[in-house]
Design a protein that fits this description.
The protein is α+β, with helices and mostly antiparallel strands. The chain folds into three domains: 90 residues, OB fold (Dihydrolipoamide Acetyltransferase, E2P) (Beta Barrel); 68 residues, no CATH class; 65 residues, no CATH class. The chain contains nine helices and five strands. A five-stranded antiparallel beta sheet has the order 3-2-1-4-5. A hairpin with a 4-residue loop joins strand 1 and strand 2. Helix 6 runs parallel beside helix 8. The longest helix is centred in the middle third of the chain and has 29 residues. The N and C termini lie far apart (47 Å).
């Protein structure tokens, strides 16, 4: 983490909130964050980000509770550059002020078995590393899905320049090779410590819950929020990106969706039709999203 660019905290920025995505899972689904879309009204005229919808992240529970339902607020924003990436900078709301100008969160981050407390700076840096890991895994899965798709890969339909696709493939195989090297070099502690499961335990583990059978499968998990919908869409084969999700559901942006279960059905249908553009329903699907 020592080589990671240091963040810059910009104090007391006036934000006009346009949308909030609540309880977006991260850290392998063990934690949740809020993703705020807002316009920074404190930026001077002529600033390239002035008037633009910015995406900011909130990890702190006190701040998430306070911000929800607000349309305007004053906040400290930490920006961290992401060199050699098309994404970024990362923008995190690290403090919010109430109507009396007092800071909302007084929480100490971190903790453990002793008196040591991890600083806010270290906590944010750790979460940023985790986000990078999750984004990397998602990108690898998307490329792998394209490569293993039974349909012929059509770069023009995917709006991919051949030169860009060649560069993506190079990064993909490099990531795969690195992952294999890491795996072969040293087994993870969790794998080494895992006890051997007896055959009897294995048989018990695969038993379905009472009342569940082949003819009566368990109901699918409901779509929790827009972020969950977009994650599921990215894992389809072929994957469906956010712009295509909006197209399939006939909205301008995915964050405008309200009926998420209906949207998920439309996205699955969209992915299925992408496999075979010669299908007579393809033109209708791409036209009206049904």
């Amino acid at each position: 983490m020592a080589d990671r660019p240091q963040g810059t905290t910009i104090p007391k920025q006036r934000l006009s909130i346009t949308n909030i995505e609540m309880d977006v899972p991260y850290s392998q689904g063990t934690k949740q964050l809020d993703r705020v879309h807002a316009v920074n009204l404190s930026l001077p005229e002529g600033d390239p980000m002035a008037g633009k919808d910015l995406r900011l992240t909130i990890f702190n529970g006190d701040l998430k509770t306070f911000v929800r339902g607000k349309t305007n607020l004053v906040a400290d924003i930490e920006e961290r550059p992401r060199p050699e990436s098309d994404y970024g900078p990362d923008r995190t709301i690290v403090q919010v002020y109430d109507d009396q100008g007092q800071p909302v969160s007084r929480k100490q981050f971190g903790g453990g078995g002793g008196s040591w407390k991890r600083s806010l700076e270290d906590d944010l840096a750790l979460e940023a590393v985790k986000r990078l890991s999750i984004e990397g895994q998602t990108a690898i899965a998307q490329v792998g899905g394209l490569l293993t798709s039974p349909a012929d890969l059509n770069l023009e339909e995917l709006a991919l320049d051949p030169e860009i696709w060649t560069r993506i493939l190079g990064k993909y195989w490099k990531a795969v090779e690195q992952s294999l090297d890491n795996f072969l070099a040293k087994p993870t502690q969790a794998t080494a410590a895992k006890p051997v499961q007896r055959a009897q335990d294995t048989r018990q583990a695969v038993q379905p819950p009472a009342g569940v059978s082949k003819d009566n499968p368990p109901p699918p998990d409901p779509v929790k929020h827009v972020g969950d919908l977009l994650t599921r869409a990215a894992k389809l084969v072929p994957p469906v990106n956010p712009a295509e999700v909006a197209q399939a559901c006939q909205v301008e942006r995915a964050d405008q969706l309200t009926d998420l279960e209906d949207a998920w059905k439309k996205v699955q249908a969209y992915s299925k039709k992408k496999k075979d553009p010669s299908d007579p329903e393809w033109d209708k699907l791409t036209r009206d999203g049904n």
